[in-house]
TrEMBL record:
This is Leucine-rich repeat-containing N-terminal plant-type domain-containing protein. Its main location: membrane. The keyword Membrane applies. GO terms for biological process: defense response; post-embryonic development; response to other organism. PANTHER family: OS01G0149700 PROTEIN, RECEPTOR-LIKE PROTEIN 16-RELATED. InterPro entries: Leu-rich_rpt, Leu-rich_rpt_typical-subtyp, LRR_dom_sf, LRR_N_plant-typ, StomDev_PlantInt_Reg. Keywords: Glycoprotein, Leucine-rich repeat, Membrane, Repeat, Signal, Transmembrane, Transmembrane helix. Residues 448-468 are annotated as: Disordered. It comes from Salvia splendens (Scarlet sage).
Amino acid sequence: MKTAHLFLAYLSLLTLCLCVCPSRAATSEAEVLMRWKSSLSSSASLESWSVNNISNHCRWIGIRCNDEGSVSGIDLPVAGLAGTLDLFHFTSLLNLTTFNLSGNYLNGSIPAALGNLTSLTLLDLSANLFSGGIPPEIGCLTELRYLSFSNNYMVGEIPYQIGNMRKVRFLDLGSNHFETPDWSRFPTFPFLTHLNLHYNELNLEFPHFITTCLNLTFLDLSVNTFTGQIPESLFTNLLKLEYLDLSINGFQGPLSTNITNLSKLKGLLLGDNYFSGNILDTVSLIPSLQILELYNNSLIGEIPPSIGLLTNLRTLALGMNRFNSSIPRELGLCNKLTDLDLSRNSLSGPLPPSLSNLGNLSLLDLSYNSLTGEILTSFITSWRKLIALEIEDNEFSGELPSEIGLLTNLNYLFLYNNSFSGTIPPEIGNLQNLSALYLFTNNFSGGEQHPTRDRKPTKYVEAGPFNQ
């Protein structure tokens, strides 16, 4: 009988423990969060985190709990938090699935103990002041779908243990100081759709593992010092790409004819590299393109008339190359263009009248070419949205249309080093938003005129000397 009573007592104690322990665990989690809050130098947004409200911690700002009352999410983006993660007790919060502290002022290193949060599916520590390296323990977070350390001051090699995160879909390590790892130790990421390694200190050749990530839609390797040619496997494997940014690197070679395989591309940014050869007509077979940037390379020959097939283009940047053709009239078919840069080439001939169809332009830069002819009134009346008109250092002639005064959104008007003649239209005085006006080295007469006398001061005005 005594044994039976002891057994019943044990069952009662066990039942009590099962009822009480989760509550105690929850209280412990709240205490852990309070200790971390107290370590922060700025935490005004965490006013609801209070010892007087510790039993209601699931209602604290930025805290989400699961059905058992355990903390499963910490979401505090742009909360004005300053301090470190040194006193964040990760091992007491093992049920976390989301951890978002982006856009704060947190500094110091990323603790290795972060690797204990093996249930995490989202980790976002972007836009802070973190330094140091990525701890190899990051490889323990095998459930992660979203990882961002972007916009910090982190250093060192990207740990190959990231390759353990086979479920990751979004990986952003951009805008840090990461160095090149042994890319051969990185496997394929079968679910990865977004990869950003922008603005780091990565060099050597294109990382091969990237070309095996067949679900990529976004790839940004810009502002590094990668070299060599782009592997053909990028153009044959990554058929889902919508955005490709390899600008400001040391890539070289001709543009691949297989680029047409990337038929879903909306943004192709290859500027500031060492690409050579011609712009292939095949580029025009990607009708979804909205951004095409090939500036500052060594491309030669003509701007192909087939460029006019890219009717969805918003940005076309071909400046600082060696193009030596005229501007094709078919460019006027790209009437969604807002930014057009053909500067610093060897383009010649007059502007085709079809450019008057480009009524959405906000930036037009044709400077430093050998373009001739007059600036037609139809151009000026169509380009009413222009913010910057830069046509300096060409061979334009004729009088400047008085309709120039209709371009009231202009901030920058650069007409110098041409052969414009006649008087400076007084209507320039209507351009109240001008920050810089350069008219010198032309054949304007009436150099004593002051067309800007009745308008607010312009920061930079150089209207002479003129050839009279």
